[in-house]
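Technical note accompanying the year-one report. For the benefit of new consortium partners, we illustrate the data format agreed upon in the data management plan: each record pairs a sequence with a structure-token string. No post-processing was applied to the example shown here.
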Amino acid sequence: MRGRLSRRRGYRVTREAAFFDVDGTLCDTTIAHYYRYFMLRRLSPLAGKLWYATFLIRCVYYLLLDRFDRQRLNVVFYRNYAGLPTAEIKAQAADCHQHVVGPHRFSQALDCIEEHRRADRAIVLVTGSLDFIIEPLAAEIRADAVIAARLVESNGFFTGELVGPPIGSHEKARRMRDFAAERGIDLSRSHAYGDSMADLPMLEVVGFPHAVNPDRGLSATAKKRGWPTHYWTVAASTAGNRP
């Protein structure tokens, strides 16, 4: 699979879909949250503190890169996974979901997803995050399909390179068009949710775009074009449980 476009078991053929970005849209997470979780699991407490101090310094560079080129950020950031054992990291995906995604999930997201499900729309996750990290979330919300990034594996280790182009910006839009063509989805009657200007191309693909907790650029664009803007929050009971 390139990127990844995966069909989940029991896919329902529909004429409409609801496409959701994940990080920043369904939950208050970034790709850095997941990587930090995996690394701190592998290190002793002292080594973890030392590693985390240097990681925070690198994050300044990642934040700057994110402002200019989200897809380039993904290419650069995922090189951090080079040399990590695939079986060990993938085995921790469920725990990562429990301790990272769960406490960061926006409480209104599930209600929104269920509303679209009742309208018989396919639920599709479109994310630059890694496929094995997103799978537990996809299973929990009963997503019909996942479009996510995938790392190259060699001899039981990640190489740090992506399979195909990073899933971001215009690549998200292209994958959505391909998905719609393959599954008979009418994009003009479909919905999409994103939180940043990097998600603008995927929002422009559908007839009903939505901005969720938008950054300044997307907020201005949504206001100008009359798109609905949603301000979702992390549940108070979990907001203090950040990793």
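Partners are asked to follow this layout when depositing records. The CA atoms of residues 95 and 136 lie 9 Å apart.
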